[in-house]
Amino acid sequence: MKIIVPVKRVIDYNVRPRVKPDGSGVDIANVKMSMNPFDEIAVEEAIQLKEKGAAEEVIAVSIGPAKAADTLRTALAMGADRAILIETDEVVEPLAVAKILQKIVEEEAPGLVILGKQAIDDDANQTGQMLAALTGRPQGTFASKVDIAGDSVTVTREVDGGSETVSLTLPAIVTADLRLNEPRYASLPNIMKAKKKPLETRSPADFGVDITPRLTTLKVVEPPVRQAGIKVGSVDELVAKLKEMGAVA
């Protein structure tokens, strides 16, 4: 069985994003980039499933600029077998990403597609669900545990107030939550080996997918600065302040 893992190049989660002076978007010039953390968890899960004998090949896929090849090399160094870069300098929205992934799924016929539940740059949380709808495959979102047995996969998923366990018939779509696993560090020997692993470069036009954005960003602004707190000396003073603010009647 093949497993496809889409990965996205995003601003490193340790970096504080900066808004461009004209408010047109987030400034990524000379900013450290890395693999989306949820996608890193998805890669780790796919590799673990391969190590358990549940899969024979792990394919990493990324849609983005030429520099996204570095993100794919990270996935290869972690243990993925080969990679596909869909190169474009345009902003690709979740629906277009899902349509491209649908074409790749049709070509590769994987038994499982594991995605991060969301990307930390837009927090859309849409691609996995859209891909499931486009391919007609069952989906297990927000996975905190994945077990494959025969032609089915059991997914424990995090929901409001607890967890839910679902059984999906393969082939299926799974999106990874934070508690699914702890991603491994790529060792230096594996980083060197990754340079020799196959990385295929294609374009959205190869799949006949129109990636023209359907949304227009009007303005991007910094979140408001949090106001300093106020110390009170007693419960009565606290209640008075809350009433003054209109927080209580």
From TrEMBL:
In the record, what terms sit under GO molecular function? electron transfer activity
Q: Which domain of life is it from?
A: Bacteria
- The membrane spanning regions, by residue number, are none
Q: Which Pfam families match?
A: ETF
Gene3D superfamilies attached to this UniProt entry: HUPs
Q: Which keywords annotate this record?
A: Electron transport, Transport
Name the cofactor(s) required for activity, per the record: AMP
Q: Which SMART domains match?
A: ETF
Q: Domain Electron transfer flavoprotein alpha/beta-subunit N-terminal spans what residues?
A: 23-211
- Keyword Membrane assigned to the entry: answer is no
Gene Ontology terms: biological process? carboxylic acid catabolic process
Q: Which InterPro entries match?
A: ET-Flavoprotein_bsu_CS, ETF_a/b_N, ETF_b, ETF_beta_N, Rossmann-like_a/b/a_fold
Tell me its family. Answer: Belongs to the ETF beta-subunit/FixA family.
Q: What's the stated role of this polypeptide?
A: The electron transfer flavoprotein serves as a specific electron acceptor for other dehydrogenases. It transfers the electrons to the main respiratory chain via ETF-ubiquinone oxidoreductase (ETF dehydrogenase).
How it assembles, according to the record, is:
Heterodimer of an alpha and a beta subunit.
Name of this protein: Electron transfer flavoprotein subunit beta
Per the UniProt entry, what species is this protein from, by scientific name?
Croceibacterium xixiisoli
